[in-house]
Amino acid sequence: MLDSFGRQQCAGIKRDGTRCTRFVTASTSDRQTQSRSTTPSPSPAKKRITKAAPGSASTSLAPGSGLALGRPGPGQSPSSENEDDLGIAPDYCFQHVAEINKTTGFILPNGKHISFSMYIPSTLSARAQARLRTALSTPPTPTDLKEQGYCYVYELRDRARSGREGRSNGSGATACFKVGRSINVFKRLDEWRSRCQSADPILRSFLPAQQGQMLLAGASTASVPGVRLSRRWERLCHLELEDVGERVNEECKDCKSKHREMFMVELQKGGYEAVLQIVRRWMHFVQIVADAY
């Protein structure tokens, strides 16, 4: 839950077992999720760091982890981009970021050890690394374990910025990518084109897929089954992309909503290949986790 200033209560747990009372500035995606699902409660707080009011929203905890975890929202559509299937991602103050990042890994129910350093790049910010650690170690939901889905990458060439344009905000040439999940990639693309007709998305890839998979809507279909934990997969991609690139925070002129799955990524940071590498790495992770349940 965000306060009226767009801040999120730190989800960390203090040594006495109570929730941290600090507030941190919420990410763009969390503000978008909050605006779609709830009305922010007024908060008279004036300081940068404030205490939570008694009776504030509770947060579920991973047994034995000491980390506060977000709850999945009820009634989510399996291919909807307008709601975050896993709710608002937990966020942390500087003190709990440092504490969480001391943990090096966790063990799955089948006994397999997962080292965070195998999946989380050391080049990410400390905050992003802490949020990814939480997302990695959160137990999967029954729905996410049961459903098979895909992650897709669209490129929106009309939103690309040249180096000249990018220099105004301190960045170089950038490309715009939409990264999301769906149980039917081509149907999802058709739905988006019908609703947001000014967009001209080019499907660059989706995973899992066979080499040489045709990507033309209306003439193609997925050739291999999707993977379980696609909601977790999408969240992991978004948490990393938000740190690597810049999340687009603009209202769509067609549907009047904000597409939370769109990111600007500098070409000098790898552009499409960097995005694809992120999607592929987190696919491998969720496949390992799914096999443990």
UniProtKB/TrEMBL annotation:
Residues covered by the Bacteriophage T5 Orf172 DNA-binding domain: 151-282
Pfam families: T5orf172
Region of interest: Disordered: 21-86
Low complexity bias spans: 25-40
Domain of life: Eukaryota
InterPro entries, per database record: Meiosis_regulatory, Phage_T5_Orf172_DNA-bd
Record-given protein name: DUF1766-domain-containing protein
Species whose genome carries this gene: Tilletiaria anomala (strain ATCC 24038 / CBS 436.72 / UBC 951)
